[in-house]
Amino acid sequence: MPTKRILIVDDEESIQIVVQFGIQMTTDWVVLAASSGSKGIQMARTERPDVILLDASMPEMDGIATFHALHSYPETAEIPVIFLTAKAQTSDQKKFSDLGVSGVITKPFNSLYLPDRIVKLLDWSL
């Protein structure tokens, strides 16, 4: 099985680092990072990751707007998206699920277990 490519789109560099650390410590997956929705869209269109981990709350272009934009391009429309969010309210979780995302992971999370969560949400194998 080819190595998975994960794109993290988050405006907080510390989250990017934590995600990258957790994934690279436990898998051979490649982690790409973008610091904004627009950069994430551009990177997704050129790099074609296997999954996008998308921060729900970002300035300028939030996660929902980024998600909709990703689905407007044929080359990114089918890429699974998992929201990373600090919003743990049931209504927030339902709003994200109703969009058709592949999953929601609530911040804070244990970065070493992040690959396991991704695998379960996407029905992959490690």
Automatic annotation (TrEMBL):
<feature type="modified residue" description="4-aspartylphosphate">
    <location>
        <position position="55"/>
    </location>
</feature>
<dbReference type="InterPro" id="IPR011006">
    <property type="entry name" value="CheY-like_superfamily"/>
</dbReference>
<keyword id="KW-0597">Phosphoprotein</keyword>
<protein>
    <submittedName>
        <fullName>Response regulator</fullName>
    </submittedName>
</protein>
<feature type="domain" description="Response regulatory">
    <location>
        <begin position="5"/>
        <end position="122"/>
    </location>
</feature>
<dbReference type="Pfam" id="PF00072">
    <property type="entry name" value="Response_reg"/>
</dbReference>
<dbReference type="GO" id="GO:0000160">
    <property type="term" value="P:phosphorelay signal transduction system"/>
</dbReference>
<dbReference type="InterPro" id="IPR001789">
    <property type="entry name" value="Sig_transdc_resp-reg_receiver"/>
</dbReference>
<dbReference type="InterPro" id="IPR050595">
    <property type="entry name" value="Bact_response_regulator"/>
</dbReference>
